[in-house]
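Protocol step 4 of 6: structure prediction from sequence.
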Amino acid sequence: MAGVPRAVLCVQHQDDCPPGYVGQRLAELGAEIDVVDARQGRLPDPRAYDLVVSLGSDDSAHDDAVPYLSPERDVLETAVRAEIPVFGICFGAQLLSRVLGGSVAPMPAGPEIGWLAVQSD
């Protein structure tokens, strides 16, 4: 993919976590966005898209009892192997971390919610 993606798969996990500003900006740039609810159980083949966006959720990316977790991990893994860009937001970033071999665990002090400063090496 060079430039703006033409076809975007947005995986949504709950009604109050839509594509929001990301979807709005992609649409302004001319992308066609397919928003798919992960809870419905059937996710499309990510190889039909130029970009995959995995959105937020109140569920835990480390909880394998979440019914849609395994199918979505498969979608993200397929996208990564096909060299399709994947953008994870919140829950989606945690799930992508697992796909790439990282670990995700609950914070002892509870979840952090909102805008936070991030430092990286």
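Step 5 (inspection) to follow. The chain has a mean pLDDT of 92.
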